[in-house]
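Exercise 7.
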Amino acid sequence: MALNQNLIDFRLTISQLNQHIQFAHKKYANGSYKITTNLREFISESAFLKMFIAWETFVEKCFIDYLINEESVLNRRPAKWANPIDSDHANQLIVGNQKHMDWSNPEAIRKISKIFFHQGYVFDTALSSINGDLMDMKAIRNSAAHLSSTTTTKLDGVATRILSIPSVNFTAYRLLFHNDPRITTATQTVLERYLNLLDIAAEEIANG
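Solution. The predicted structure, written as tokens, is:
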């Protein structure tokens, strides 16, 4: 089943990238890190970038699979308003006369889901619940991918809002590995919270 495989692939990728992050944070017996700060931050931010790409890839594959009439993990199919002949044709319909479809933008995905599926099928509900988090993740992704005054300002804004403290000249690494104050039941980093949200949403999308 395509949707089940999409979920398996997504979770496997996240697991592998988490292993890279764990490697970057290994310590000697005396508590000091085995690799330098710069390398630790580079590995971790690179892993986060690939995690975000894995999420985009998962959503794109699921959207196309549902559009070509694949069943969900729970053997469900959406009512849809297009019948592409294959995956390539489905992608052409989605892109239309644009240069590409922005699978990193939950608002854009929710919008086209309502065009192709009855009431947006599972995409509208799954993404609406984490819309703000996905937009914050995109801002963090952008700051890690290309540093500029614009991305720095946006990242500081996200950090200030999440951490509830004035945040100036933050880095993606510093925010992602900061304990998330929104989690009161356990100690969890901002990244760990995001990955939990993505996993729940991915399962919801794959289940249909």
